[in-house]
Write a structure and sequence with these properties.
Chain lengths: 262, 275
């Protein structure tokens, strides 16, 4: 881990203008994310945390202020990051294997060289034996793994995750969180993780950023100094986790519900 | 079922029983279908013998004799060939143009917005009414029918596919953008396969209409084809000839539907291969 900033967000504003209403989604956001860090955004729904993620990925543009990625303004789609959304958005017409190698096809890696990488990636996410299956034959958790492998395969410098485990049951979420941590321990890819689950944010991250209800502003940034490697299955029982949860929840709970009024 | 000698941990006998029931049900359906078919033909035969002059409704035995005659002498096959040629060539021209046009308009929102009222206006005119015009332009040969089939097929497939492309999930496209894909890869890797569903569902609609278009074209003016046979037979008040031609038309329709179904199974296998 170095102290170099991968992502710098400066005085960022985002307006959504539509026929009937103008909504200020983000207001005066300033944020630095370091190389190899694991940062979570938490906040009530509608606080603009996903919007911020979209802007870091270059899928949406800020109304004012700027985002710099490794010193360069993000003005178009940021192809140096990987993006995983809540909907797994893997392609139903491709087998697991073919989904995973998508990025290699786009980067025109020769066929002979793909096979090895694909195989490694599939085993990294624990999908051996399902290479030839179609997404319609997989469970929700397996589809998430495909999405993860599909993104990790091109070794993005940073991984943006937008409530990636949102629609899964509790046990499966824990298992996948565990795997994500394992992968992060191995690769130390910069992670930006959006979630509405504070427990998840604390268990996974080095830093939790709390957003206010709409318009989203950064309310609190808290280092999570729980030592690693962490065990996501037991971390919730530790005193340290409890104290941090208590502290951050105190700040978050005032905001929850604000977003709902709109 | 008697429960003596039944091992509760071995579903073998249950499975056997289950298979037997399925088989019985299937055979029953086939048997009843044949029964319904024969009864209808028998009724027709009786009605034409005792109630209505076969001059109006012909008679199954006459039709079967006629069909036999057509097939054995080979008289029918040039006509079948003509209709199939018009459908085949017309369909593929219409299909290719429809896919190109819908890809072009489906991915260029501004252009589609400008052209929208014109497309709706054209859509509201059934393509088939252009038949007489095409005969006027291209004569009574194959060309007019091919054009008519192509136009009919074009509009059916175009509108379906166009709407399909507009509804392709933006997230799928974003995923590829972030991977650094250019417009061309996005086309080939997302938009085409995602629209395959719509293209195929419109295929299924377009097939019977392509048959209709070819036959209507032939009815208007032609020298060959199944439509010509109908027209020719009815011109000399030969109802047997009309029904024999209609029967063949039915066979062609069934055949074409089967072709589409097989193609769909092959190409959209990812959708149907649920376990």
């Amino acid at each position: 881990m170095t102290d170099e900033n991968v992502i710098e967000v400066r005085n960022l504003y985002k307006w959504f203008i539509s026929k009937n209403s103008d909504v200020l989604a983000l207001e005066s956001v300033n944020l630095d994310i370091q190389e190899g860090d694991f940062v979570s955004f938490v906040g009530p729904s509608g606080c603009g945390k996903s919007t911020l993620l979209n802007m870091i990925a270059g899928l949406q543009m800020p109304t004012a202020g700027f985002i710099r990625y490794k010193g360069e303004d993000v003005r178009e789609v940021n192809t140096r990051v990987g993006y995983i959304t809540q909907h797994d958005s893997i392609f139903p017409w491709r087998t697991v294997e073919a989904n995973v190698q998508l990025a290699l096809e786009i980067k025109q890696v020769p066929k002979a060289k793909r096979a090895e990488t694909v195989k490694n990636m599939i085993s990294l996410v624990g999908l051996e034996g399902f290479e030839k299956s179609y997404p319609s034959q997989l469970s929700g958790g397996m589809r998430k793994r495909v999405g993860l492998a599909r993104t990790l395969i091109y070794k993005p410098e940073a991984l943006l995750l937008d409530e990636p485990f949102g629609a899964l049951d509790a046990q499966l979420t824990l298992t996948l969180q565990d795997e994500l941590l394992r992968i992060w321990d191995k690769t130390h890819t910069t992670m930006i993780f959006v979630t509405h689950d504070l427990g998840e944010a604390i268990a996974l991250s080095n830093k939790v950023v709390v957003f206010t209800g709409r318009p989203g502003k950064i309310k609190l940034t808290r280092e999570i100094d729980i030592p690693r490697p962490r065990d996501v299955f037991r971390i919730r029982f530790s005193a340290k986790f409890g104290a941090l949860y208590e502290e951050i929840w105190g700040s978050l709970k005032e905001e929850v519900g604000k977003g709902e009024e709109l | 079922m008697d429960n003596q000698n039944f091992d509760p941990l071995d579903p073998g006998r249950l499975r056997q029983e289950f298979r037997r029931q399925i088989k019985f049900h299937r055979n029953l359906v086939i048997f009843l279908r044949i029964g319904v078919g024969i009864s209808l033909l028998g009724l027709w035969e009786l009605v034409s013998r005792y109630l209505i002059d076969p001059f109006w409704i012909s008679r199954p035995m006459h039709i079967i004799t006629r069909l036999w005659d057509w097939y054995v002498t080979g008289f029918f096959f040039p006509h079948l060939g003509a209709t199939m040629l018009e459908i085949g060539v017309g369909f593929f021209i219409g299909l290719a143009l429809a896919i190109m046009a819908s890809l072009l308009l489906g991915t260029r929102k501004e252009l589609a917005q400008v052209l929208d009222p014109f497309m709706m206006a054209i859509w509201s005119v059934p393509g088939i009414v252009l038949g007489p015009l095409f005969i006027l332009y291209f004569g009574i040969g194959f060309t007019a029918k091919i054009v008519l089939v192509a136009v009919t097929v074009f509009f059916l497939i175009f509108f379906n596919t166009f709407n399909g492309i507009r509804e392709v999930d933006q997230e799928w496209i974003d995923v590829l953008h972030i991977m650094g894909a250019k417009q061309r890869s996005i086309f080939i890797k997302v938009i085409l396969p995602a629209s395959a569903l719509w293209i195929f569902s419109s295929f299924k609609n377009a097939i019977p209409y392509s048959l209709v278009a070819a036959v209507v074209g032939e009815l208007i003016a032609s020298q060959r084809g199944i439509g010509y046979l109908i027209q020719d037979a009815s011109g000399v008040m030969d109802t047997t000839g009309v029904f024999a031609a209609l029967f063949n038309l039915m066979l062609v329709g069934l055949f074409l539907n089967e072709v589409v179904e097989q193609a769909e199974k092959r190409i959209l296998h990812w959708r149907t291969s649920r376990q």
